[in-house]
UniProtKB/TrEMBL annotation:
InterPro entries: Biofilm_reg_signaling, EAL_dom, EAL_sf, GGDEF_dom, Nucleotide_cyclase, PAC, PAS, PAS-assoc_C
Domain called GGDEF: residue spans: 307-441
Record organism: Streptomyces bangladeshensis
Name of the protein: Cyclic Di-GMP phosphodiesterase RmdA
Record domain PAS: where: 151-221
Span of domain PAC: 225-277
Upper taxonomic lineage: Bacteria, Bacillati, Actinomycetota, Actinomycetes, Kitasatosporales
Pfam families (UniProt xref): EAL, GGDEF, PAS_4
Family annotation (PROSITE patterns): EAL, GGDEF, PAC, PAS
All copies of domain EAL, residue ranges: 450-712
Amino acid sequence: MIAEPDGPEDRLRRLTTIWSRAVFPVTSTSLTRVEFEEQLLPLARRLSELLRARSYDADAAKAVGAALVGAHCTDPEALARTLDCIDAYLVLYCGEDGPQDELRMRSSRLQHAMAAGYAQALRERTLAEQEAIAQAALQAQGVVAQALHASEARFRAVFEGAAIGIGIADLDGNVLQVNEALLRMFGLTEQALRGRRVQDWVHPEDAPQTWRLYDELVRGEREHYHVEKAFNRTDGTVLWTNLTVSLLRDADGTPQYQLALMEDTTERRLLNLRLRYEATHDALTGLPNRSLFFERLEKALNAGEGQRFGLCYLDLDGFKTVNDSLGHAAGDRLLVEVADRLQSCATAPGEMVARLGGDEFVALTTGPGTERTVDELAERIMNALVTPISIDGRDLMVRGSLGIVEGPAGERTAAEVLRSADITMYRAKSAGGNRSELADPEADARAITRHGLTTALPTALERGEFFIEYQPLVHLGDGSVRGAEALVRWLHPQHGVLGPDRFIPLAEHTGLIVPLGRWVLEESIRQARAWRERYGPQTAAGPLRINVNLSPCQLSHPGLVQDTIDILERSGVTPDALCLEVTESALIGADDDLLKPLRRLSEMGVDIALDDFGTGYSNLANLRRLPVSILKLDRSFTQGMQQFPADPVDLKIVEGIVSLAHSLDLAVTVEGVETGAQAEQLRILGCDTAQGWYYARPGPPERLHDLALVDATG
């Protein structure tokens, strides 16, 4: 048994050995195969470095292809075998530790660049040969009489033995003489080819300047020209060539003949087309990939006045569940089937479907009437997903969320259009999925703003852009200030002061809520200490307390209890100065593990308030198992009390909640008190404390100083 290579150098040597064995039989070199392998080793090492480099270096890969020509690997079969070897083994032996899909894409691009470098180097070498042949031809016709025989012999040797096709015609275009290489290219006999005229070889893919250059040459206005030209063979295939045509003059300088030198580039062109296809199409589904889609989209957006575009951005709903339950192989087959269905939806001129990656697809339609056609395309796509897809004997229901963007060309970049479509697609997914949504500039702007706020959150905390406002908590019985609720604000450099509803959900989503919540707790307790130092441990009516909101993410964080203890100890504040507010929705159905931190804090003397009570539809009897000492009644229950007389239903509900809470030894705080009548009615119903604009809006801590001072002086 042969040991497998176990180190990077061993794997590189193995790759080089395979490469040399594949290419050596078709290489014109005097080296032994082992010597030839040593010549390929630095090229293999360079390819390995390029495969794993951070950025793609096309010029370096081209240099590797050019080096093959320098190593006498000039047979077209040498390039084909090289690329087959690189495609099969480069990632296997030199990229085993990296992401395979990305490395295979990089390998494909390296092959493309190698082929381009090889073609350029071979072309330059061929042009050098062509120049030598042309010089030999001129010398053969221009030598003095006494050396005519020797010169003709040399010309004949070059003419017949050259690997490139050579033909001579008169200035009227009649073919006079051709060599064997040219006959093999066209697949014709010498008699058949010599009966042709140059002008008969017009091809639909000729460049516009091809025949203009020809006319200038036969008129004697230019000495030579070089073009890429296609020729039709008699068997129906196309011969692609690098064609150089030179003018031959007599001793007096009068034009006499035209000399054509042809290099067969058909195989190279087909190889380039294959590499181009692989670089622009998805390997799994065969659809155009992100790169080709962006090319088409940019072309559509630059189509000119009067042109429009429509784009549908599709993301499959629940595709991850298929991968997790049935495996990635089943997921891949599902994607292939979806791709086939989508392809059948976009068959009209100006329509295309592409796969961006994963389970994301896009469909593009262009033209002057895309307002209508994009809606029709979206409807066909959604209908195509209705029929179940059978995978491994299971019928899978496939649904998708679709974002639609339509508009005139020239107003937005491709990146902006795709971003709008992506945002719209996620809006459809957030609405439940299995639906389509039309792009809304205002919704896009909100989403972009949310993203900007999300990315700015971490540095905002470091730069000290957050601050806290305090809203007093007032005792309804005697009107005394009992404390305040800490409400965090963000002073954003561009958007100004932002309330917590703008950034707290973003902080929860990114996990920043934990350090932000810790900062709020530290600042609030520091302020509580400042109040107690100013007014003593308690006011005439009782101790001042600071209320701090606790996010569900903080509640489940393992460091909550210890962080709270550390902050209280560092500040020298007793636990009875702190009340942590937890929303009712966060505690619905909470198990003992989730409640354990709250119980520990409650046992320490920290008050726990159940915030927004009445909005979570919890079982009132469930209150007995929760470690709470305060109910904060949601403002929706007291809005009917702002007017006189109060809504009798609201009165009965609040009266019942207060009675139940007091029977469980729970205090009741009411939010959103805005009128004196409301405050008086809540006092009569037995509510303990209240907060709202009737007493004070959230503001700096000095405002609480003023209110507390008024309370202390009567």
